[in-house]
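In response to a reviewer's request, we include the raw inputs and outputs for one of the modeled complexes. The two entities were modeled together in a single run.
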Amino acid sequence: MTTTAPSRRRQHSRRFGDLGVALTFLLPAVLAAVLLRLWPTVRAVWDSLRSTALGVEPTHWVGFDQYSALLRDPAFLNSLKITLLFGIIVNPLQIAVALALAVLFNERIRGAGLMRTLVFLPVAIPQSVSAVIWAVAFRPDGPLNGFLTRLGIAPQGFLTSPDQALASIIVVVSWIGVGYWMMFLIAGLKEIDPTLYEAAALDGAGRWARFRGVTLPQLRRQLAFVLVADTISNLLVFAPVQILTGGGPNGRTNLIMNDVFERAYVRADAGAAAAGTVVVALIALAIVLVQFRLLSRGSD
Amino acid sequence: MSTQTQQRPPTGARPEPEPARPRSRRQRPRIGLIVLGTVIAVLFVLPLWWAAVSALRPQRETFSTLSPVSLWTLLPRGLTVGNFGRLFDAEFGRALLNSTIVTVATLVIGLAICATAAFALAVLKFPGRGVIFAVMVISFLIPFDAIAIPLMSIFRDAHLENTYLALVLPGVGNGLAVFLLRGFFLGVPIDLAEAARVEGLGWWGVFWRIYLPLSRPALIGAGLILFVFQWQAYLWPLLIAPDPEMTVAPVAIAQFAGQQGVDFGAIFAGAVLTALVPLLILLFFQRYFTQSVSSSGLK
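The model returned the following structure tokens for the whole complex.
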């Protein structure tokens, strides 16, 4: 690898590049990408096209039967519906709150740095730990009901109530997520040229008009990124569901990752789980493609 | 607009960044904002505070302080470390040790893999660079959790269940870390590398002696990304390492909480211990983390 030979060697390397060196540098990462991401994806597609009915017959090609069975399975359709409902509520909610907090903590107010850090703290904690803490908080004899009792309100079911369980999960994942997305938006706010605000103020624009006229358009790239990244991470929510409700009551919180997990490990239906995995991966890919469109339009 | 109470700057001086306005109009919303911000921050931190206090108070007080809620819900009457003692009797120490081993191994191996790849993609010129970059981008666009279940089948076929290798591997190749480091390396003037090459330094030397020492902030940022991914991993360890000997802390705490006749004092103690490591690290490096994550995600 030493380059004692002068110009001949350099011209050679200009023509053919540093292929050998590059391959050594790249090999581990390329292996990791191919073996740990691409191969399992291909494997999921392959498994989903074959029957793996336990003990009944040897595995054989079944084409799209797994998918058509899955899409006729009321439990899977319900999990798609719940995942969609969850996404429609949780994504705008988290982004709106994160944006409001980003704007608030970006103001020059006393203690803003400390407040920002306190809101960010839940991000640092493993999701399963957060779920365990909230599991106790939501108990019938937990602090939330203790607080409601103090206010003279009857105790609520929270995780055991069909009407409140999904909302409870939304509270938990937002408690974790809001601080995280807020940090991205604060980074974006700091990049906005202050003279834009001065110009708007000179034009007599009030707080709200400056927010709509300067902040929102200037923050477009960050918002687009946060929207997509948040949507994907909420598509893949698993630990809080598995720990807090197991998908219940009556499938009301059965988000798609929990559904696929249960197919694989509780019902041992590998083929259906593989098909479910492919569906999740396709939805994630579709969301990423939207990101590219949003971001490339944003850079025009 | 109204009476000017402040001294005007001498004529010809540059205008202040914000036009001076009467104090009363500027102060009042500020106080409102401070109150609002404080209330929100307290609400966010309250569950953590309550968990920490509950970890330190005698187990019988966990629920007795809750109905009705009073100040004693949030303040311990007597402090004890008994919860932690029972936690370690229940082999939680093993889980914490496993998490530490897996995370440290991920950090060392992951940084090496991601930094070398980023260096090749940013600095070296070779045919097929675009193709390799595309393969990396596409593979890392697939979220890991989405393919954890089929990856589990592959690892099971290779008899890797319940091994540290299986726990570490998925964390070592991280697309976000590669792109972050690549972006940083692209910012290092290429003249430095070329000058060193003329002096006879090999590419390995350029990487090790020039690029790495210049890239400390990016390396810290990439390290934090790898750390956070691995320390809070839940689905993958749950699938691949069910053996009690190999359980990691986030899984152990969830299993602990799911048992019959739960010991809430010990659960809170475990939650606090598992949360403490990342809390301290992220508090210390918060700036690097947010900077790096936001720049690697956006550029």
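As requested, we also summarize the result in words. The CA atoms of residues 264 and 270 of chain A lie 5 Å apart. DSSP finds 14 helices and two strands in chain A.
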